[in-house]
């Protein structure tokens, strides 16, 4: 009998070992085998300047794209692998449960289906760029196998790069918040303009992964408003400082006429913003209503939905998410649903279908490259008319002195008469819009008499000062254009209106402004804080005295700055989400407790509390949430209580065209070119300049670059 039990025990041990080994190795074995791009030689040289910024020279445009991928991999291969894993719905196998949520979204949105249907229709030169970029990443992975984190992830191909665009693009206008709300059975977020007639009040409950992260500032100054007849453009995007949507600076040149200096995201074969010889643009997030949700009527067994009085089959597909847990990767089954409207989520409240701008479309891959190579305003507008980018403001300037703002979006062609701001009935096919409004319907402001344009994530109806604005009556409420104002927008307009003629120094002062305008939510919030009754807590009275004396500037020079920084952020967050202000007593008490515990003072210096931290670098910061000098989000160090900024001012670029049309630019990043390479000299070499409001030159031409070339090589 003992031998029998022993055999059983040994068998169980063997089974456990086999199962453990299987769970550890199965995921790469079942991953879809991908064909690498056709082999070809790429003629590219990478030149690194004294800050490690890659300048990529190629004979052809695909040569440059190949070099972009290789240079970026040298500086941040770990993030590029995460982006690649997302495109294959393998993020869960790389990072666990949080990654599996992204994989679920990729399956739900049918990203691979979009690529299968649309990729071949892309122009041949765009497909060549995508293949070249994939080949550059593959080459780096082949040369550095020890850095590859997920078996079977390489080789990549052009379809993988396209899938990354299709997956991430709709999250910039809030689709992730809608998906999250539906998955959790919560109230839906609302985007767009003022409440329409008959709109239910109970829908205004935005949720999701910190929508207040969506920020940026942008300024364009016409030569007539400048003291020196110079056209100026300021790119001041607010992005996370690390990860898949952190900016990467680069300069590119091909013999086919592609010359551009700017920044890109991991996974892109070209810059997304910056300038070429004759024009430039930058982006800010806009928030029109581009997502519609429909409630479906299902049959009893939830296999069909009613549309136009008939039952239709609800598409259902079983997918297996891969979830890394320790050394194992576990399969987790999920069912993906689709209707004629689009993706469907079933929760305790019912079945909800989603339709959004840019659904099943890859045209953004062409549009971005065409505007890279545009030579004048007419060509740039022609490229914008491709209408592939589903949402984001474009602020433009050029050597000819033109400035413009396009409130760019793929506005659904909705029919009047329905409540498009609420949950729509899913049983009417006439509510399933099929097209979007043409380019000539997109709100656009060109060369206003004020001589300046600004946007800080506010309504496009405030952009150039009184008397020079777009007329809201010219645009249908069905477009869902927001009417929000931010503190940054109010400050910018106030400062521009007071500035008179503008030179470079004045523009810099405006960009780095750290003030709050005494209006709107800031004033209401301050009044609420000062109205809190101390109820015997003397610290509340002391904090209120500091706030009364505060100069509404987060420059680190006055009293109460650290306290104001921490109490203002919760109000900014609620205002951006279109929610009521938070509980004043709760916020004030929590802030007092934090400052008292970690700093033994309610008035520590702002720079003592707010920090730029990367590796061994630990520097004081200024600015705050919703100031033009943006420090939007931070991580709290539980050991010393300091706030390490992780989101806010990121890539900053000042561009100028002189009276003869010659372009120069300056730029800065929070850390350096190699944000995930602690051993690199460019891990943090820009940090001190960044906190001191300083920039470095962009060496746009080969002649400017070569005296500063620190490394030249061919990958």
Q: Mind explaining what this structure looks like?
A:
The chain has 715 residues and is an alpha+beta fold. It has a domain at 520-662: Orthogonal Bundle (Penicillin amidase (Acylase) alpha subunit, N-terminal domain). The protein is built from 19 helices and 27 strands. The strands form four sheets. The protein has a ten-stranded mixed beta sheet, covered by helices on one side. Strands 3, 4, 20, 21, 22, 23, 24, 25 and 26 form a nine-stranded mixed beta sheet that branches. A hairpin with a 2-residue loop joins strand 10 (304-307) and strand 11. Helix 2 crosses helix 6. Residues 12-23 and 195-212 have low confidence and may be disordered.
The overall pLDDT average reads 92
* Intertermini distance: 67 Å
CATH topology of the domain at 520-662: Penicillin amidase (Acylase) alpha subunit, N-terminal domain
Low-confidence stretches: 12-23, 195-212
CATH class of the domain at 520-662: Mainly Alpha
Largest sheet report: 10 strands, mixed
List keywords for this structure.
single chain, 715 residues, alpha+beta, Penicillin amidase (Acylase) alpha subunit, N-terminal domain, ten-stranded mixed β-sheet, nine-stranded mixed β-sheet, 19 helices, globular
